[in-house]
């Protein structure tokens, strides 16, 4: 069946927009209709291309041959590449359009640890350089560029980035370029990722960037809590993205919404918009749900709901900085449950570093229209802080029914500044900057 991209894109966008407008409808619906699971007319096995799943044989050429065959001998309805039980060691490889990468139960696609031969890629234009080192970056382990209609799924098979060697280089300051992501899609649309386990990514785990109509559901993401910068899922300058029913335990933010870095993100100018994040459970020494700090292209129309966070540094973290520019607006976060969290809520205008000395100090971000409601936390060391930028105060910040209890019932104080908005039913009571006199946008 041929996909009619324009028609399908409009339908997907309309569905997501309806869910964003109606939290009640969103609670009763899944996002599978945005990028539905589909069967393929042809099934081939990686073993047909000489791959050996013994955990020792390097299968890079086999994966690349199989995908080359799918790309150039295109079957109507697409092709499923079956990866059976076994440990399939490989270097990085690219996916192609109209394909499904299917990991059977017990299948492990494992990245080689031969970093000396790892290919390089150009820096993302909205970042201007590698995120952690100047210059280019190492190519992602499994990646796609300019693709349409790609599914990564299975029977909870595993994609293992064997990130330890990369983490050691970072910690020892011997890293030459920015580490690779585990799974990345650039300039792609109709991407569906489900029922797989991702573990030990060298850097961020799942990174859709400059893409649209992306569904990530029923995915498990794992990395040690001391692994550096192993974000779980980072939609970056994307539109129409749904993340749901996932478990994430990593060394950095569980989910982080981004849109470029300082002057490069401002110049590229692609927002991250129309994002749904729901029914996510996880733990991290950093943030549960994060927006920013790289949000220079703008972030808008975000719905986050039914989140369970435990043993985490910050529950909800909206972060930006002078020089970022851009905007963060129309964000709704609700039904969040926290346990053993350092800080329940932080909205901050002084977070994040800069790519170089060329950022514009007058590029001030705008944070406006953030509603956080129905949040319950126990063993929260500090309830929260909302500290805007004096030259660009945060506006229309609403807290409604937010109850964050300290260890042993202790009540700590909030910290606030350069912010205006409303607080209703908040315990402990936040700050004088949030009044109780206007609830119009708070109840919207």
Report on this model:
This protein is mostly beta strands and 444 residues long. It folds into two domains: 1-23 and 35-252, Single-stranded right-handed beta-helix, Pectin lyase-like (Pectate Lyase C-like, 3 Solenoid); 270-280 and 291-353 and 360-444, Single-stranded right-handed beta-helix, Pectin lyase-like (Pectate Lyase C-like), CATH 2.160.20. The chain is built from five helices and 29 strands. It has helices at residues 5-21, 23-27, 60-72, 164-171, 262-268, and strands spanning 42-45, 54-58, 79-83, 86-90, 93-94, 99-103, 107-111, 120-121, 137-138, 142-145, 148-154, 157-160, 183-186, 189-194, 196-199, 206-209, 212-217, 220-222, 239-249, 255-257, 272-283, 287-291, 299-319, 327-348, 366-387, 394-404, 415-417, 419-427, 434-435. The strands form three sheets. The protein has a 23-stranded parallel beta sheet that branches. Strands 5-10-13-16 form a four-stranded parallel beta sheet. The longest helix has 17 residues, at 5-21. The model is unreliable at 1-11 and 23-28 (pLDDT under 50).
């Amino acid at each position: 069946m041929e996909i009619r991209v324009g028609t399908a894109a409009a339908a997907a966008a309309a569905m997501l927009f309806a869910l964003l407008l109606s939290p009640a409808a969103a609670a009763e619906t899944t996002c599978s209709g945005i990028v539905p699971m589909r069967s393929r007319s042809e099934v081939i096995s990686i073993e047909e291309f000489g791959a050996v799943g013994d955990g020792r044989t390097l299968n890079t050429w086999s994966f690349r041959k199989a995908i080359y065959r799918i790309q150039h001998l295109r079957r109507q309805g697409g092709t499923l590449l079956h990866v059976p039980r076994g440990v399939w060691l490989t270097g990085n490889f690219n996916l192609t359009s109209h394909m499904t990468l299917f990991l059977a139960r017990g299948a492990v696609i494992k990245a080689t640890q031969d970093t000396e031969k790892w290919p390089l890629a150009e820096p993302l234009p909205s970042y201007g350089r590698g995120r952690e080192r100047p210059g280019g970056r190492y190519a992602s382990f499994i990646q796609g560029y300019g693709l349409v209609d790609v599914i990564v799924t299975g029977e909870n098979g595993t994609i293992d980035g064997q990130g330890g060697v990369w983490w050691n280089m970072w910690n020892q300051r011997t890293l030459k370029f920015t580490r690779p992501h585990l799974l990345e899609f650039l300039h792609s649309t109709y991407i569906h990722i489900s029922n797989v386990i991702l573990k030990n990514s060298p850097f961020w785990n799942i990174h859709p960037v400059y893409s649209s109509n992306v569904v990530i559901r029923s995915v498990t993401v794992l990395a040690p809590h001391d692994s550096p910068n192993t974000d779980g899922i980072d939609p970056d300058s994307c539109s129409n993205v749904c993340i749901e029913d996932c478990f994430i335990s990593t060394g950095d933010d569980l989910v982080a919404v981004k849109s470029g870095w300082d002057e490069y993100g401002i110049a590229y100018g692609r927002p991250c918009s129309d994002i749904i994040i729901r029914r996510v459970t996880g733990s991290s020494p950093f943030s549960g749900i994060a927006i920013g700090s790289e949000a220079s292209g703008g972030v808008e129309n975000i719905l986050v709901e039914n989140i369970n966070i435990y043993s985490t540094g910050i529950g909800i973290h909206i972060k930006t900085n002078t020089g970022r520019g851009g905007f963060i607006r129309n964000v709704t976060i609700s039904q969040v449950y926290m346990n053993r969290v350092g800080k329940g809520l932080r909205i901050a205008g002084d977070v994040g570093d800069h790519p170089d000395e060329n950022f514009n100090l007058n590029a001030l971000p705008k944070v406006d229209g953030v509603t956080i409601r129905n949040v319950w936390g126990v063993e929260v060391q500090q309830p929260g802080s909302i500290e805007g930028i004096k030259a660009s105060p945060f506006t229309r910040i609403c807290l409604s029914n937010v109850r964050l209890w300290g260890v042993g019932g202790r009540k700590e104080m909030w910290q606030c500044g350069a912010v205006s908005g409303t607080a209703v039913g908040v315990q402990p009571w936040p700050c004088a900057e949030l009044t109780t006199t206007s609830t119009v946008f708070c109840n919207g």
